[in-house]
Design brief:
By secondary structure, the chain is mostly beta strands. The chain contains 10 helices and 73 strands. α5 packs parallel to α8 and α6 (289-301) packs parallel to α7. The longest helix has 18 residues, at 408-425. The protein is elongated, with a radius of gyration of 41 Å.
């Protein structure tokens, strides 16, 4: 039996307007109890008097049989298609619906229904788009490999049958160069038996004159129906009238354009054929249901297997369902229809269109080039499947092409063409088998659980997106994929593939549900990336991988080595998978990435936007470190080793948390507290286990980091923070119970977007507070809340970087460092007078850190911003260090941090760009191994450095707009005190008592013996110094211990030449936190020489 498909395609240009209803005619069904119903040819009267009276009453012009070619067997249950009649009125009736009710009241009439115009479903777009994404999206390219094309097999072709798609639409330009070779030819009308019914006459194609005999040779009810039928004009040529109709030809291109013919486009069916069934009428091609359904039935009668119409209307018409059922049940036609193109506003609606909404019709909605649902097609519970229908390529009348056209009109014929190909592969299958394979193998796509205009799409897009390859192969071939990749036996056994490591790579291979079991599977890996060497490239699976299952090998693996100095990132690899016991084997290639990474095990943690700088340390006292930070989803997070959430976290703060947290035992109860602010003006104090200890509300927002300061020098710390409330702001100071410190808040009436710095500026034993505002001002405020004399200092622009406090000139007073949005870096004495300035020309952002990178006994200031540079500037001599600044090709919003990452005694500098690029430099501006590297998402907060996993090396922690990243630096850390986190210390005061080794240049004579002076002053507050002389080059180690022998801080651990040195301790521990009053010991070791002295800190 001939196999064909009728495409019902919808073409929505004016998108789901109300149905156009014929007001001068309608359809009635004559009751089956009326025997021998007929119409007198002379009088036009029926043999039912009741009906004649009603026809006369309404001024009927005539009554005629609708489906004249309906046969006795054309029925749907007890509804016979030959009992439908059209009643024509003399003129249009103003209320056709009331008229229908009058006719339905007659005993001789079962139903009376309107006639509507079916609207084509498309959205024209003039811009060009030259590739057919639709073929690869439905995996037609893979499907074609199931045929041996090189040896003459043609997909969709059979020597004994034609598999055709009947295009029921407004005309068909059947001699289009990209259609003519795949037009269905009815060999039942080949009267001369020469095997063709189309011949060329000059440059034109015509019906074979020797076949034109006016006889219904194949007895299908149509005479000389060589390529289909025109149901609009009732003749045998479905060509558009005067070439006025374009839509049918556009649909036909997706239904059956010739494939592999070196011109135009390809169709999913490759060798399947196109049958023409014009239902357009008049000069405008209007497709009335009185022509649409005869075309549907006629196509089925001519041998079509799939009926797909690219047209639609809103009204349910029972006679439409009857014709559909008869075509489906009596002729075996699979019917495909487009779902529609949404509402009149151009947006997706969920209204049922017909015939797509009828039973026994596959309703097709559309997806776009990225496998997305574009939120203009119709969705709903009646949709069965989706196919590409947005920006597809197709044919046009006159031999042309449309390179960019959209509509469910084109999703439907792509589906029909694929179904035709499927039928050619399974010629003996019934409709249920074909339909089940098409729907059950459809691919899930993410928008199936999305929404349009706030309306959920869940359950509204059918089984998924068409995949013809899976429909053809499921249950015959396996469908293998890589389920997971594991790295085993790497050097440090953390399961992360680091530079310099050899690793076993094991694949977990999956086999999709509904496909054949995969036997004798062999995986072979290859890569063109020179960062790795593949030592063993093959894995053999000794057991079958069942359908829907996964498998891995116990012993076999790939063996891969990553060279030591290579850049971090993904290495593109190709895995070739082969399965089968004999040829032809199942084969597929899968691209996947092997990651060369410094990721800490269990990280990154994804799915959050982080603009709060992380803080790291063992804050709950259990010997395991934690990382705390805020996010833009209203949560404050805590994570511990291996990416596990800290108990009690996340904590819901109710609004964005961009304030960087600070940690200290502020109430002296032996338990640390975590302090942070949120954008809704709340200041939170939490325990390390997420218990809220205090909520302090302020109007406005808290964006900058709070600072912890012992303002009243009573051993308990106060929280100092800034706010912005519109264009205003205040400086707050509260105790751990939420009480305002006397003199606070200080209403500056100026917006502050960054936190405060705190330190004893003079020093006079009383801490001071320094803030920068958006009104271009720098304020210094004393511990009573009074603005200090000499302030504010007015700059040239606003401040988006917090101030830093540091004793640059060694006089015991703290200098104030602040950079503005014009790129002007101020260095002020403690009294507000200018010490130095540096103009870099563009915004300074994130913060200014402090280091002595070249160990010359003088501090450098490290900062970055919108000039794309990282600067290392010495304010004492006004120049940048050799090698600096470094151009990083993108702006930065973060504060550089420093640490001795590789244990060589020199500091490394970590800088992050907003783009996600991370740089690590040695002190001399040369790049650290494996850097720079790029992280996912933007970096808009400063990183932190700490030994997170307590393994003797440092981790670097980054918050990004995609989540939390933790790099595990694989070299032994050095113990130098440095600016390791935003604001320099856990108190976030912007002041770190840096330990400098000062060379005494006045002493030219190399000392003859080891000597350490008594520390001076002693007792001391806030700092003390001692002089050291060494007689030979050695490691110089200076450490501070408390009275119990606990190591408090390592001031120096570095190899130095013989000479004279001065070391200063500012009373801080290794984390930058101030130590309490008490007795301490300072131990100096140079080679085998040791000196230990007692000193007293008094506060």
């Amino acid at each position: 039996m001939k196999k064909s498909f009728i495409i019902i395609v919808f073409f929505i240009f004016h998108i789901a307007e109300a149905d156009q209803i014929a007001d001068d005619r309608f359809i009635v069904y004559i009751n089956n109890l009326v025997d021998n119903f007929h119409i007198n040819e002379n009088s036009g009267k029926t043999n039912v008097e009741e009906l004649n009276k009603q026809l006369d009453k309404v001024g009927s012009k005539s009554i005629s049989q609708w489906l004249k070619r309906a046969k006795a067997q054309d029925r749907d249950g007890d509804i016979y298609l030959n009992r439908f009649y059209i009643i024509h009125l003399s003129e249009g009736h103003p209320d056709i619906q009331s008229l229908l009710k009058e006719f339905e009241s007659l005993d001789c009439i079962n139903t009376a229904e309107i006639i509507v115009a079916a609207n084509p479903h498309y959205i024209p777009n003039d811009s060009y788009w030259g590739t057919q994404y639709e073929m690869t999206l439905i995996q037609a390219d893979l499907a074609y490999d199931l045929w041996d094309i090189d040896n003459g097999e043609i997909p969709g072709h059979s020597d004994t049958a034609q598999y055709s798609v009947a295009v029921v639409d407004a005309g068909l330009d059947w001699d289009h160069p990209d259609l003519i070779n795949d037009i269905w030819q009815n060999m039942g009308e080949d009267a001369d038996g020469d095997g063709v019914v189309l011949v060329q006459s000059g440059n034109n194609w015509i019906f074979d004159p020797d076949d034109v005999d006016g006889i219904d040779n194949d007895e299908d009810g149509y005479e000389d129906n060589f390529i289909g039928w025109d149901f609009g004009t009732d003749d045998n040529d479905p060509v558009p009238l005067n070439n006025n109709y374009t839509h049918g030809t556009e649909v036909a291109g997706n239904a059956g354009a010739s494939t592999n013919n070196q011109i135009g486009l390809a169709s999913a069916g490759w060798g399947t054929k196109v049958m023409g069934a014009n239902c357009g009428t008049g000069t405008d091609g209007t497709m009335w249901t009185t022509e649409v359904f005869p075309a549907l039935l006629g196509s089925a009668q001519m041998g079509a297997n799939v009926i797909n119409l690219s047209l639609g209307y809103d009204s349910y018409l029972s006679y439409g369902q009857t014709v559909v059922n008869s075509s489906y049940n009596n002729y075996g036609a699979i019917i495909v229809a487009s779902s529609g193109n949404g509402g009149a506003d151009g947006n997706t609606n969920f209204d049922t269109q017909y015939p797509a909404g009828y039973d026994n019709v596959i309703s097709v909605s559309a997806v776009g080039p990225n496998d997305n649902f574009p939120c203009w097609p119709t969705a709903g519970e009646t949709v069965d499947i989706c196919a590409p229908g947005s920006y597809v390529v197709t044919t046009e009348i006159g031999g042309g092409y449309n390179l960019q056209i959209s509509g469910t009109s084109f999703a439907a014929p792509i589906t029909s063409s694929a179904i035709a190909l499927l039928c050619s592969r399974f010629p003996d299958a019934d409709n249920a088998f074909i339909e089940e394979r098409v729907l059950s193998t459809a691919d899930y796509f993410p928008d199936m659980d999305g929404s349009c205009q706030g309306n959920s799409l869940t359950g509204m897009l059918g089984a998924g997106r068409l995949n013809i390859y899976k429909a053809l192969s499921a249950g015959i071939n396996p469908s293998l994929y890589i389920s997971d990749v594991n790295y085993l036996n790497d050097t440090d056994e953390d399961g992360v593939f680091n530079p310099g490591e050899q690793v076993q790579v094991k694949l977990i291979i999956g086999n999709e549900e509904g496909w054949a079991d995969a036997e004798n599977v062999v995986a072979t890996i290859s890569s063109e990336d020179d960062r790795i060497a593949i030592i063993d490239n093959e894995i053999a699976f000794t057991t079958a991988i069942p359908s829907g299952g996964t498998a891995f090998t116990l012993i076999d693996h790939f063996l891969i080595y990553a060279f030591e100095d290579v850049a971090l990132g993904d290495v593109s690899c190709t895995v070739h998978l082969q399965a089968g016991m004999e040829e032809p084997f199942y084969e597929t290639e899968i691209e996947f990435d092997i990651s060369i990474s410094l990721n800490q095990y269990g990280f990154p943690v994804d799915g959050m936007v982080i603009k709060s700088s992380p803080i790291v340390g063992d804050f709950d006292g259990n010997g395991i470190s934690e990382i705390f930070y805020g996010s833009d989803n209203g949560n404050f997070y805590g994570y511990t080793i291996a990416g596990y959430a800290q108990y009690g976290f996340p904590f819901n703060a109710g609004d964005d948390v961009r304030s960087s947290p600070t940690v200290r035992d502020i109430d002296a109860d032996g338990v640390n507290e975590i302090v942070f602010g949120s954008n809704n003006g709340n200041l939170y104090i939490l325990s390390p286990f997420g218990t809220q200890e205090l909520l302090y509300y302020t109007p406005g927002s808290i964006v900058g980091s709070p600072a912890l300061v012992d303002l009243d020098v009573d051993g308990e710390y106060e929280v100092v923070f800034t706010t912005q409330d519109g264009n205003s702001g205040k400086v707050y100071a509260i105790d751990h119970d939420g009480n305002d410190v006397d003199g606070f808040p200080v209403d500056l009436d100026e917006k502050m977007m960054v936190g405060a710095a705190a330190g004893d500026l003079e020093p006079d034993g009383n801490p001071d507070i320094v803030v920068c505002t958006w009104d271009d001002n720098i304020y210094a405020i004393d511990h009573t809340g009074a603005v200090k004399e000499g302030f504010p200092v007015t700059s040239t622009n606003r401040f988006n970087a917090p101030p830093t406090l540091v004793d640059l000139d060694g006089d015991g007073d703290l200098e104030i460092v602040a950079g503005n949005d014009s790129g002007l870096l101020h260095v002020l004495h403690h009294d507000g007078t200018e010490m130095a300035s540096y103009d870099v020309g563009d915004d300074i952002r994130g913060g200014i850190s402090v280091a002595d990178l070249n160990d010359d006994g003088s501090y450098e200031l490290l900062f970055a911003g919108y000039d794309d540079m990282i600067h290392v500037w010495n304010p004492m001599d006004g120049v940048e260090l050799d090698g600096w600044p470094v151009d990083m090709d993108y702006n930065s919003l973060t504060e550089p941090v420093t640490a001795d990452l590789d244990g060589d005694g020199d500091l490394e500098v970590v800088a992050a760009m907003k783009s996600g690029m991370v740089y690590v430099f040695h002190h001399d501006a040369t790049l650290f191994n494996n850097f720079p590297t790029n992280l996912s998402g933007n970096i808009e907060s400063s990183p932190a450095i700490g030994d997170f996993d307590n393994d003797g090396d440092y981790e670097i922690i980054f918050g990004t707009t995609q989540g939390l990243e933790v790099f595990d630096i694989k070299s032994e850390k050095g113990d130098r005190l440095s600016w390791k986190l935003h604001r320099g210390n856990l108190d976030r005061t912007g002041s770190l008592a840096m330990t400098l080794v000062t060379v005494d240049h006045e002493e030219d004579i190399i000392p003859k013996e080891f000597y350490v002076s008594p520390n001076y002053p002693n007792p001391f507050n806030p700092s003390t110094s001692l002089d050291i002389q060494t007689s030979e080059r050695n490691d110089l180690n200076v450490r501070i211990f408390d009275a119990t022998g606990r190591l408090v801080n390592t001031l120096i651990n570095k190899e130095l030449d013989a000479g004279h040195y001065t070391v200063k301790w500012n009373g801080l521990d290794a984390m930058g936190q101030g130590m309490p009053t008490g007795v301490y010991f300072i131990q100096v070791r140079s080679g085998v020489e040791i000196s230990t002295q007692k000193m007293i800190l008094i506060k």
